[in-house]
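sorry for the late reply, my laptop died twice this morning and i had to redo everyting from scratch. anyway the thing you sent over, i finally got around to it. pasting the sequence first so we're on the same page, its 253 residues, then the predicted structure underneath. double check i copied it right bc i was rushing
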Amino acid sequence: MNVDNKIIAITGGARGLGLAMAEHLGAKGARLALLDTRRQALDEAVAALAGRGIHAKGFEVDVADEASVEAGFAAIKQSLGPVSGCINNAGITDDAMLVKGKGGAVEKRMSLTAWQRVIDVNLTGAFLCGREAATQMIEAGHPGVIVNISSISRAGNQGQSNYAAAKAGLHALSVTWSQELARYGIRAASVAPGFVATDMTSMMRPDMLERIKQSVPLKDLGEPTHIAQSVAFVFENDYFTGRIIECDGGLRL
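ok and here's the structure:
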């Protein structure tokens, strides 16, 4: 797909990886619908993109809420037109061990609230947004692309039962959707980042961050633009569907 003048929705689009994707695709001519929960952050992102000559509009949406997602995509269609692309990037963490014991007694357990909160945003949110995007593509009669942002943690990672399960589930959605939606000219695929230099990693202790860097074969964190380039590849390669790009500097958990 040539993204020039195509409407692409990006969840979690107000900052970090989402904003990097918006900048990269916007520079190629895409018209962007940024979805996020924070109006101020959306306004700042739209203004920053406008300063680069990139057309974007912000939509305040809670991806974990069905009514909010439906209203948000309806607003995108009304103000910009039906989407041709959707990037399910919104995600949160709420880490904890499944159970943590000492001296034969269990002291802590991952709460159901922590489990459900991460699943609701990271996995159910992608389902809801992917469903709305596919509906618009089919009704508009044009091809489309859905990209789910997974993670290297999809293979499993200590302290992240909820996050790892959600990220594994995201790629399962990509495979399933690629099979179901191909008849409509819609492709679906995943991008799985490794450790990337974002606001989240910048808050880590310097010694921990250095240990992470040394564990990566390329000895450094990825940059948000590396993930944006991977997403752009999925959009632009019309024979790529149902597969995953692992952009992780060679690291395997």
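The helical segments are 16-27, 39-50, 66-79, 112-140, 161-181, 199-202, 206-215, 224-236.
thats about all i looked at so far, will dig more tmrw
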